[in-house]
Design goal:
It is a single chain. The protein has helices at 23-30, 91-100, and strands at 7-9, 13-14, 17-18, 35-40, 46-52, 57-62, 68-74, 80-81, 84-85, 106-110, 115-120, 125-130, 133-140. With 153 residues, it is mainly β. It contains 2 helices and 13 strands. Helices cover 12% and strands 41% of the residues. Strands 4-5-6-7-13-12-11-10 form an 8-stranded antiparallel beta sheet, with no helix packed on it. The protein has a 5-stranded mixed beta sheet with strand order 3-2-1-8-9.
Length: 153
């Protein structure tokens, strides 16, 4: 049995798992994670992290919000965004594709270790490229009070 195709749903969730739900719902959709860890940012935020290495994604749950599902990181090359196999796109193709979906608040940053981050603040999604190839996608929800839980790759 092959793994289900991962469908990115900005502002909503991933596949049938909706942002704002909890770990029980996540387990019902994806099963038990291969690995879990807790991340403490040192401020008012800490996350429970569920790694699904073989399936190519990681789920983040805000522990201060009762383990609320708030963020996803994906590196699976076959995932879909609005029906498009997204990892096949170049940076230029990605920008055009995202603009056609109505998102225009773009921010680009080149990291000293070689990654390029292309972020769309209005979609709450980050795309990471290395040597011109997409390597991962992070997206999440805004919890209010300017607290956005998109975690750095």
């Amino acid at each position: 049995m092959s793994a289900p195709i991962l469908e990115i749903k900005p502002h909503k969730g991933i596949n049938n798992l909706v942002f704002g739900t909890g770990t029980l719902e996540a387990e019902g959709v994806f099963g038990r994670p291969e690995e879990t860890e807790e991340l403490d940012s040192g401020s008012d935020s800490s996350s429970l992290v569920w790694h699904f290495w073989e399936k190519g994604f990681t789920l983040f749950f805000d522990m201060q919000q009762g383990n609320m599902f708030t963020c996803v990181e994906i590196d699976h090359p076959d995932c879909l965004l609005w029906g498009q196999k997204i990892f096949d796109l170049t940076e230029a193709e990605l920008k055009l594709f995202i603009a056609k979906q109505g998102f225009h608040e773009i921010d680009i940053e080149d990291h000293e270790w070689g990654e390029r981050r292309i972020s769309y603040d209005d979609a709450l999604i980050d795309f990471y490229f290395e040597k011109g190839k997409m390597i991962s996608i992070n997206y999440g929800i805004n919890l209010g009070d300017d607290k956005i839980l998109i975690l750095a790759n």
